[in-house]
Protein 1
Amino acid sequence: MSVEYVQHLSNNLKRLYFEDPRYKNLRILIKEQCKDKTDGLVFAVRKNEIHIYYRGGRLLKITDKENKGAALKIYTNPNYAGADPNNEIAKWNEYDTSKDAAIWCDNLEKLKGYLTRFYQGKRGNDERLLQHMLELNNRDFNGEVVVIDNEYGVQKIATRFSHLDRKKKDNFGKFTKHELSILAERNLTPDEVLNMTDKELEDFRRDYKLCKVDLVALFKGDDGKYKICLIELKKGNGATGGPSGIKDHMRDFKLFTEVRKNDIVKSVENLIASKTSDKIDTIANYPAGGIELDKENIYISILCYDLSTNKKIENVENDIKQAYDEETKKILPHFYYNPRMEETKGDYTLRKEDLLHKV
């Protein structure tokens, strides 16, 4: 089975972005702005793409898909310009980056303004900004918690079994060779899958989609090993979605850690190597001798910010206890939930005790 984590760059993209003299000014500008803890950028590694985030929104997408891999291609979302009939962002997207990235260097500040106005007042913007600030302020191995990625995802299996949809009768039940190999690994025959009820089939297909959480972080355990912690953020009353929302999270976490644990470990190792290298250097004070990663235990922590009353906190805790049943405890022995987080202006430092608030 192929490795299906999404945090890796091809050698060609790494060469173009980090070494090609055409893009020197852009990488220097981005690297410098990544150091700012109050209004900085976040460098993210995706599946052969570099994403640059600002205030929780994707500012730039950088690929090696220009001139058949001979140059970088740089994009942003043209919708950031709103209804502007002259939409200069669309023109930036058409810029010939086979010669340089000058237009992006010259207009980076203007683009940040466009993005800020685009997300202002939109649903989820407060949580998006909180996520960004937590990453900006927890990128140092001298701290208790080190955030190494946002919108962290691992694809559970390299297929979505798209032909298992009874509404599309002409295609229903067709399997690729890869899908048949997956069924064999799970000791399932095609007939067993095709004879599932609609609900069973829906659950089966859902198992193979992309797992995603808000942040992935590291903290040092009492045994000296660094623990991987997947963090989901919630902000404000109602953000948890009640018992059904919590159960959905539990289900995703179980699939995340059961089905793709090895890929989680591999992707985290890749992220550490990438973000602590001299070329990116967005995470400070990486130990000279390296770190030892705990490859057996995955920690889960849901951090809920700014619940307005003790009653709201109590309700959330009850929802968690209801969803965290005995079966779930066996699969997620390192599950934690903290409903008492508060967003304090100027202090977004995460501590180990924040993550390990026991249910």
Protein 2
Amino acid sequence: MILEKLCADLGMHEVLIPEEIMLFQSRAKILELPAKVNLQKSGKPCQKIWYLVDGVIRMYNHAHRRELTLHLFTTNRFITDFISVKTQTPSRFSIQTVIPTTILEFEAADLFMFLDTSLHFERVGRRIFETLLFEETERLQDVLFSMLPSVTTNCGTASLNISLRYRRSTLHRISKFRPDTEPHQEE
């Protein structure tokens, strides 16, 4: 049931033949995990891609002897350290369940093999990566907009101008922007 829902959400039935869907489903592991299970530890290459069916997962790292949660993931999301998966370099992040969680676990190598051998899977892969890119961009924008007023207050627009190469007037306008309000419409 869980795998069928994922296949439907990704539109697999529109682009894959039944044998390809069965192959994809055969590579997934359905895991029901308690809270505080580490899926990925920082310092080790990430080799898996997870799909969060139910529960909450956090991505965190240790900075300055403190544990810093970078992101909380909720249902119907793909989760991985994509840079580590793709380059097979040590991950900078740990990934852990927060509450009892149900996930689908895939070996990243299996998914990349599917992408390399089938144009149909390539279309599905593009949908997955578009979703990941959209979610990451949205998360970074949220972080940027939540930090920007304090950053410009603490270091000033002149310092940001040097490091970001934006005009001072542009930074001044950005620092006044509040994401919870409508942007000003110029006529």
Protein 3
Amino acid sequence: MKKGLVFALIMTMALCSCGKEKSHQRPDHSSKTSTTTAASAETTTAAQEEAAETTAAETTAATASSDSDTTTTTTDAAPAETTDAAYESAGSHVNLDTEDLFAGQFFDENNSNFSMVLDNIGNGYKVNISRKVSDTQIDNWYITGQFDGRAVLHYDNCSKYIITLDENGLTSSTETVYTNGTGYIAISERGGPEDTGYVWKDDVDNAGSSAFFKK
């Protein structure tokens, strides 16, 4: 009888011990749920912040692109203004004033291969005198200056060049004969108002001694 009571007591204590262990081992679902919820909230917040940063970056890039387009447009417009300013500063190479009696193309009445071209450059005239010596040689004189009140252009900056042509009529070489030559070009009414032209006095080699240039 005593042995039976002892055995029953031992079994009761064993059963109580098993109950306590099961109670301690029961999972805490509420803790895991809280952790999952917090993690989800953090993920959502991070995604929202990343989306906000992406939107801000796209807005900045769009603004920069717009500014770049504006700058490019301004830069493209600049060369035209620069070109116009340079053109006006240098003066027109082609004389547009039909009333300008000094400007134009003139030919020696004795030699059609001997010509003089005067261009109004705004602050004076540019003169190109050309003489065809042969099929392979052309002599050129370049002069700039202003006509005085007596219709005479005195100069001290004449440059003479000899142009050699190849068989196709293209320039094969250019030789500088001299620079800073002196002389003058003058309007002459040799036979009256109806017979007006240019005479040329070249101090270096007297190249225009017998020439009379007329339009």
Protein 4
Amino acid sequence: MKKLMILVAALIASNAWASDGHDSSPQYVKAKSLGFNGYSWLAALDSDYKEMGGKKLQKVMILVDKDCGSNFKALQRVDQYVLFTPGNLKNTTCSGRERVAVLPAKGVTYKNGDYINEDSYYVFMGVLKGESTDGFPTQVLVLKQVSEK
């Protein structure tokens, strides 16, 4: 029984974005039509990265959810990336996500304070590692903005 539970848990974790019955949802259908294995939400980016790893997450269409993701505001531009951080987190489901770097789609510009585009979808690109101003190691998950609906 214990082996079966471990196997089921592993299967669910490896297919978290497609195992909860939403495979007929418009988001899933769109993701599959664009060649993705499934979709997930910006709010789940950290847990998806931990559960799936970067390689699998690159094959998942990332969407901006209304509860958490829509609260992400442009904080600053660093090279070609825009660093987003959650704005007002009261009454949201955000937890743990401090910031995300986004490589904007061609022709898209963000000014400080702009919200992340909810109509776009995003692809996980990787992790930028560095050091914070106080010397602690830090990492930022990087997304590429692919399109606007």
